Amino acid sequence: MIPTEIARKILDEGLKRGGDLSEVYIEDRETFNLDLDDGKIERAVRGNDRGGGVRVFYQDTTAYAYTDDLEEIALLEAARAASEASKSTAEGRILVDLTKRENPVDVGVKTPFSTLDEKSKVDLLHQMDEVARKQSSYVSSVNISMEEVHRAVWVYNSEGVWAEDDRNFLEFTIGVTAKKNGTLQRSYSGIGAQSGLELLESQSPLVLAEEVAKAAVRMLDARPAPAGEMTVVITNGWGGVLFHEACGHALEADFVAKGTSIYSGLVGEQVASPIVTAIDDGTIPKRRGSLRFDDEGTPSSRTVLIEKGILKDYIWDLKEARRAGRDSTGNGRRETFRHMPMPRMTNTYIDVGTHDPEEIIRSVKHGFFAKQLGGGQADFARGDFVFTVTEGYLIEDGRVTVPVRGATLMGNGPQALKQIDMIGTDFALDSGRGRCGKGQWARVSVGQPTVRVPKLMVGGTDREIGGQIGA
User: Fold this and answer.
1) Are residues 214 and 354 in the same domain?
2) Residue 201 CB partners (closer than 8 Å, separation 6+)
3) Considering the domain boundaries, does residue 466 fall inside one?
4) Which residues are CB-neighbours of 150 under 8 A, at least 6 positions away?
5) What is the residue-wise DSSP string for 339-385?
6) Range of the domain at 130
7) Number of domains in the chain
């Protein structure tokens, strides 16, 4: 952090040439990465990245300058550069006192990363590799990564904001390829949380390795995917990635303001089935998308986006909220100090329903069960999407039967939301693997119960589609 008296000087410099609000953002990031490919450590890297940026608002426009030098003179120069971008000659506003904000959201660390030495962490990745290979002689390739991130941020602005957040992430990802008679199948998943090493007490990397390897092997005997319009049941937890991509982005206020969102101007309108409620909640303890404060110093919040099918609100950052004359929802996020914040989702999900998941399956005479979604693409303006299914099954006479491979789900997110006719009681968030791309990368969580869409296009293809999130 920087002393508050220096923060005040920098904020004052930002207002000298007509700005009506100035902001200082400071970040200190430490990372540790391990990659194991086919039994060998290919990367073991520690890194540190620190710097700061100054943003100055001029009514509906902003200017931003950043530096990796946190000395007072460098930050003042950044403030001057941002300030000089203004054409205004109005006098700057008088600063108010900086008062430190508090927020009770629990994202604290119980067991620091340093309590386990690097050799033990390497050994854990080797154990994951061994567990995956023990599942079958058909396992041909195993790729594992572990990442630790400690990210401390400080935000000050000329309206008196002083906010600090300390974010720690631990993540494991694994991809397993199985091969049989020339057929290759790959399964991929991960676990993670805003957490220290206590993550290992609640989610086992060894269990993860076992599950992913078994999924890859199961799909070796899968039939080719069917094609055509049919009833589709989408799994709970990670299945919420489809709502995130096909609908969630269209609820971010920058797309709404530009008129490029299908949901622009529809607050108060019916946009989904009456049984659908969708929420963005950055206050859930330990989740990857959770924040005490966003990257603009606004406290994180729980925002009901859609309630019983009715559009209630959008996802707001400070810039878009100022334009609209309203408050931010605490969704201003940036990848690093080199980026300006923008409206981004945190932990976004379809809320719990009333149907037993087994009842949902029994209701389907002939259809498709998407158990594991892979990468995908979505058109934010229209909501059209294409998603690969890395693990899918036929539903026949109310039972999940044979696995099928090469499947894709194609459709329109807003239309699918209106069609949903059954939502399960088995609500779950994902296991901790989501990274969302929107010009900048951000950690997020997605979730939902099991849901049924009566008519969705299923296509068969072996071509992998690059995704926006967690592919």
Assistant:
1) no
2) none
3) no
4) 29, 30, 31, 113, 166, 167, 168
5) S--EE--SEEEEPP-SB-HHHHHHT-SEEEEEEEEEEEEE-TTT-EE
6) 113-153+163-222
7) 3
Q: Residue 99's pLDDT is what? A: 57
Helix residue ranges per DSSP H, 225-356: 241-243, 253-258, 318-324
Instruction: Identify whether residues 431 and 300 lie together within a single domain.
Output: yes
Residues 69 and 36 in one domain: yes
Share of the chain above pLDDT 90, in %: 85
H/E element, 205? helix 205-218
Confidence check: pLDDT of 196 > 90: yes
Say whether both 81 and 168 belong to one domain. no
What is the pLDDT confidence band of residue 378, given thresholds at 50, 70 and 90? confident
pTM exceeding 0.90: yes
pLDDT in tens, 202-246: 999 999 999 999 999 999 999 999 899 999 999 999 999 999 999
Q: Is the pLDDT of residue 108 over 80?
A: no
Residue 467 covered by a domain: no
d(CA 41, CA 143): 10
Torsion angle, CA of 457/460/462/463, rounded to 10 degrees?
-40
Domain end, chosen from 222, 237, 269, is at: 222
List the one residue out of 378, 145, 342 whose CA is nearest residue 261.
378
